[in-house]
User: Fold these one by one.
Assistant:
Number 1:
Amino acid sequence: MDDRQLRGVFDFALMEALWEARSWRTRIAEAEAAYGPSRAPAWVLSSHDQPRHRTRHVDREDRARVAAAVLLTLRGMPFVYAGEELGLGDAVVPPERRRDPLGRDGSRAPIPWTAAAGHGWASPDPWPPWPPHASTRNAETLRADEPSILWLYRRLIALRRTHPDLVSGDLTLLDGPREVLAYRRGDFTVLANFADHPVRVPYRGRVLLTSGREGLTDDTLAPCTAVVVAGTR
């Protein structure tokens, strides 16, 4: 078959990774080796067949933000599953409301568009139930809150569009502390601290984006935080 007919295949490696820098690094390294420089992975964190990554990583906003920063700075094609940009977790679906025999109903919950009851849908009681915290994790509320995860996704996508190195440039995995996933994309370095404590890293530069309120101060990366750094030394 002419390989031009198949432009991208979902790579599920990150959906299977533990919340450890070395686990993510291993899967990224394996993908880079498998695809080679002439092809690129199609990365996904969640899908309608798997628990959302926020749920898999114990419903922590900081972890969801780090995962977003990594997804949107890797080499290849990033795919955002509907609602990831709102930081949604899986709905809790009682047994009597489950329809999928494999129990995948939770990740298929409707997207909350507004904060009001019904969340922008015609039915106030849809199948399956709303995802957790729908009154605050909805498009209307997060659009009005610039520090929100929705705006982090917007900033990450804008950064990709502005800097070709983050789209088509090479990816080089870097050495660093075991808690930190580090890689270079052209003139940029991405550092992701998977630990719940600050970590000293051997990289400095101008921080273009941080996943949290803190980032890289001198040579110390804040807990559970990812940064994109330019002019690294």
Note: The chain has six helices and eleven strands.
Number 2:
Amino acid sequence: MAPLRISQLARRVGMKPTTLRFYERAGLLPARRSESGYRLYDEEAVARLEFITSGRTLGLPLEDIRDLLPAWEDGQCADVRARLRPMLLAHIADAEQRAAELDAFADRLWQVLGEIDGPPWPGRCAPGCGFPHRSSDPVPGTAISPRPDEQPPVACTLTEGEQAERVERWRRLLAGARREGVDGGFLLRLPAELAAPVAELAAAEKSCCPFFDFTLRLTSAGLELEVTAPALAAPLVAELFGGGETTDTCSHWNV
């Protein structure tokens, strides 16, 4: 079969050419060059990308997938499974920890809801009205960040259609938010009643785009959402959370 150019391979596997070039730079997708300098791929590249995609849907970092590829190339399923097992155990532990943190956050929100459904304090609302923790402290369990030894790639496992839907969900949820720039991203101020849907959407975003860092705080003035990302993702952060137009966000999602 004739070799595939990068645009042909991208259409074949349903990815963007920028994603394939990123995988090449990351050492996951080798390509040979034509005499005129075009990248050329064979049928094995299709299977390789399916393997990479399967790993990404499990939340494996590219470093882990790169470690698995030599065993996959040898074609021995037992070897792949032997290497994959400890990786999955580590990610199960991480996922369970994140789930416990979100459960704790949900319990905290229900506690605060119960307090504000009770009799109001007489007169003007004091700083501690409904917020017994100090306003400058993050709510326990709401910092959604990567492990310190990881450097997540600026890439996302969502399809373009899913990306467009995710952008629209953020647009609706953050409508009317007050924004200010911080180092590497934005600080958004929202009504406190949006804490649960914001936490849920931030967790979903983190699972498919791990290069984002989210921190949620409940303060006496409401909810604060801080979003940061590596410098390479600055255009995406600005479009998604800076209040600008998001029509071209998908072109920046996998770089």
Note: Strands lie at 4-5, 32-33, 39-41, 143-144, 178-182, 185-190, 213-219, 222-228.
